[in-house]
């Protein structure tokens, strides 16, 4: 019998009380079902569901898009309060770890809040939108925030955002059209990084993309920039993808392309339910993963990413 997996979900969401029911910036349902809306505004629901499922740690984010929409002006004065709440959440619940939310497309403004979130609040990483107002990660405005993350060696989760023409996609494909559009935006963000040289210029930058952006790897393979023959190179790019669930076919594609050391378990909770330990074992077996590979993807890779900053500090001492 296989040993229990240490499961770390790199991709979960919560909204601060001010954006929840009755809050000052109440966002209504955001198109969610009543159950999802209840969960995304309830830390207790996340803690209880994950404990029951056998998940050890949830990385919690609140995205710029969820707070301010996918386009248009942002009230940057509200973001520090969100990060304060995320830090307090982690202090209250040991099974939750917040990633600081920043508007990476705001230049030095975003970089300053990234620095505060990491250094003063002790948040475990950053979450940034994959695009905003027609700009992607290679835009010069994003560079200051990425430099902060690289300097402190904390992971950056690049979260999918709605496609500008998502209503058209939804009309054509139903609800899946929205997810497909988000995957396109995340895939373009991934390709913009590969095409820019950022990963070569900032070797301590670690970027995590969502499985929705899986289509981007087809284009990267065609271009010969980032494929099977390069995945074990000593200077390989520090790019990772989450699984967004436990589908063994998706897991296998990601592992075959990136290698098991760069795939992370994730869900997009509460959009998707918690990863169940027994089901995850079964899924990994169906994907033909070895026991060591299962441990890496379930939580080992995430634990390593989350400890890079501490390892650097210990080395400096």
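Sequence proposed for the structure above (317 residues):
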């Amino acid at each position: 019998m296989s040993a229990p997996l240490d499961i770390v979900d790199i991709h979960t969401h919560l909204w601060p009380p001010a954006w929840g029911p009755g809050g000052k910036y109440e966002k209504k349902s955001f198109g969610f079902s009543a159950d999802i809306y209840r969960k995304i505004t309830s830390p207790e629901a996340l803690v209880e569901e994950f404990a029951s499922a056998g998940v050890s740690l949830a990385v919690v984010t609140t995205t710029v898009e969820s707070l301010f929409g996918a386009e248009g002006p942002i009230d940057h004065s509200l973001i520090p309060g969100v990060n304060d709440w995320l830090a307090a959440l982690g202090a209250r619940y040991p099974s939750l770890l917040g990633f600081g939310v920043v508007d990476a497309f705001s230049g030095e403004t975003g970089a300053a809040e990234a620095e505060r979130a990491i250094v003063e609040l002790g948040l475990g990483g950053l979450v940034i939108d994959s695009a905003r107002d027609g700009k992607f990660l290679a835009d010069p405005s994003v560079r200051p925030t990425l430099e902060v993350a690289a300097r402190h060696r904390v992971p950056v989760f690049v979260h999918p955002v709605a496609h500008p023409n998502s209503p058209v996609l939804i009309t054509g494909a139903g609800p899946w059209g929205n997810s497909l559009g988000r995957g396109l935006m995340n895939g373009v963000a991934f390709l913009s990084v590969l095409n820019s040289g950022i990963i070569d210029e900032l070797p301590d930058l670690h970027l995590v993309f969502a499985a929705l952006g899986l289509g981007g790897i087809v284009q990267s393979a065609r271009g010969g920039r980032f494929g099977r023959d390069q995945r074990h190179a000593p200077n390989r790019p520090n790019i990772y993808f989450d699984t967004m669930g436990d589908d063994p076919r998706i897991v296998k594609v990601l592992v075959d392309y990136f290698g098991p050391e760069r795939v992370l378990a994730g869900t997009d909770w509460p959009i998707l339910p918690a990863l169940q330990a027994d089901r995850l074992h079964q899924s990994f077996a169906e994907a033909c993963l070895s026991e060591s590979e299962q441990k890496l993807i379930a939580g080992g890779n995430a634990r390593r990413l989350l400890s890079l900053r501490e390892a650097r500090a210990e080395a400096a001492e």
